[in-house]
Amino acid sequence: MRVYFNVKGKEENPYLEKFIRHYVKYKRINLKNITIEAIEESNKSSPDYYIKELNLLVEVKRVVNREETEESAKYNQFTLKLKKILEQRVIGQYMISIPFFYSTSKGKQISKIADEIDKAIKNNLNECSVEQLGKVKINTISKKGAGVCFSTHSQPTFRNPPQEVHKNIENSLKKANKQLASHKFRKKKCQKILLFVNHYRLFDHKWQFIEALTYSYKKLLTYPNINFIWILKGEKTDPELIYSRDFL
After folding, report:
1. Which residues contact 8 (CB under 8 A, 6 or more apart)?
2. What is the pLDDT of residue 41?
3. Closest residue by Cα to residue 59 from 81, 80, 83, 43
4. ∠16-17-19 over CA atoms, to 5°?
5. Would the pTM of this model clear 0.70, i.e. be above it?
6. Distance CA 74, CA 3 (A)
7. Taking all residues of the chain, what is their mean pLDDT, rounded to a whole number?
8. Which distant-in-sequence residues (6+ apart) come within 8 Å of 180 by Cβ?
9. What mean pLDDT do residues 52-74 have?
10. Sign of CA dihedral 103, 108, 125, 135
C-alpha cells in the first residue's frame, strides 16, 4: 500500500504513516493507495489529519514529561553558571555528579554551592554533602589544567507511572476533543481518533496508559469527539488501542 501526504515534511507524518499502515491491517481493509490530508496548522481548532479513504480524523499528541523537560533546562542553566565559577578556582579536571531534581528546592545560592564543592576538591574528597543539593560526587580526571564537567545521579524517589502520565495527558484530552469537533468535517460523520506518541523513557507499558486514562474517566464521558485513543510507543512497536467509546 502506498501512502501519500499532501504536505511533506510535517513532523508528525512518520507517526501517522506507521499508525495508518497498522490500522488498515487491524481493520482488514485492502487499499492500494491512501492520501493523507494534513490540515493547516494555522487552524488550531482542527485536528492534524483527515484520511478520505477511511473517513478518519486523527489528532496526534506527544506524551512527554513536562516536569522533567523543565528540570533539564534549569539543570543546564545551573551547571553552566557553576562551571564558570569553579573553573576560575580549581586546578585540575573534574567530573562532578549532582542530583538531577535539585531545582525543586528554592533559595539556592550558586556561590555558596561552589564554595562547598571547591573546598571538597581542595581536600581531595570523592564526595561531599551540600545543603542545597544533597550528595555531590567528585571524580578527579587530571591534576593538570582547569576544567569541570557535570553528570547527574538520581535521588531515591517513589514514582507512580499512571498518575504521572495522567498529569501529562489531561490537557491533551480536553484540547483534542475540541479539535476533533471540527466544523469543516462535521457532515462527513468521521471516526475520530486521538493518537498518543509516547516520549517517556521509563514508562512504555500499555497498562500504564490504560490506567492513566482511568483518572480521566469521568471527563472522557463528556468528550464525545474522541471515539478511539491509540498509543504509539516506539519505532519498533505497533500502535495499540487503549480506549474506545464502545467500552463505555
Report:
1. none
2. 63
3. 43
4. 65
5. no
6. 41
7. 84
8. 47, 57, 59, 192, 194, 225, 226
9. 82
10. negative
